[in-house]
């Protein structure tokens, strides 16, 4: 029986965790859009550029004659991207038009019997506190400001921070669950013989076609550039509302474990060069995802943790 070396086992485990993360990565954002009946939080440019990266990755993996599992995953990525883009287009255009049309066609609410019996001047007075009295609106605003000022120092600590902590803990639990699924999946594959370590010299692997390597770099550049429109959108709006935090956490997990699975297998120069496009695409985007995490944190403080969506 072949002895399983530690670095090969870790490479297999991290690769399996990466696979599990990428299978579930888009589910939180799909669910978030569905719950909100809106996709205004996510940048369509981000999704389209990401799709370009997945398409070039698919073509490159077929061209390089990678194992069927890698090709199947690349096909799944393209399919999932298309589903998310279709959902965003539906909520951004079709659903919004239907909602606007329904609002226009809806008749204004009829006045209640009590309001109908009130004199016109009295109804106007009740509809807007102290309207018509000189300076009354400014006094009312000042009163509310003083009242809010007395409450605001304590409320964020008592109410908002526990909610924010709960959101992060819930998402962390999801990450741990995905890691468990990936680890158990690798163990089952190893025990059943579906996964076998490759102990050959990594430098002896057949060289990939030049065209496949070029597509790999195009895919890496697409992945790196995809998040920039989302980061800029968050910055302009000073908000991350409508974005799923777990979506980006799974992205970091998938990229980190994917890069680790390559480096744990071998650090031979030739092997690293062959996998360099995929390493750049996976590890490079982690920096941009961390930037989005900072935006989640920063804008949640500015807007009372509304940016942290569960």
TrEMBL record:
Gene3D superfamilies noted in UniProt: 1.20.1280.290
Region: Disordered, residue numbers: 103-148
Subcellular location: Membrane
Main location group: membrane
InterPro entries with a match to the protein in the record: LAAT-1, PQ-loop_rpt
This protein's UniProt keywords: Membrane, Transmembrane, Transmembrane helix
Family to which this protein belongs: Belongs to the laat-1 family.
Single GO MF annotation: basic amino acid transmembrane transporter activity
A Pfam family it matches: PQ-loop
Membrane topology: Multi-pass membrane protein
Transmembrane stretches, start-end: 12-31, 43-64, 70-93, 168-189, 209-226, 246-264, 276-296
Protein name: Vacuolar membrane PQ loop repeat protein
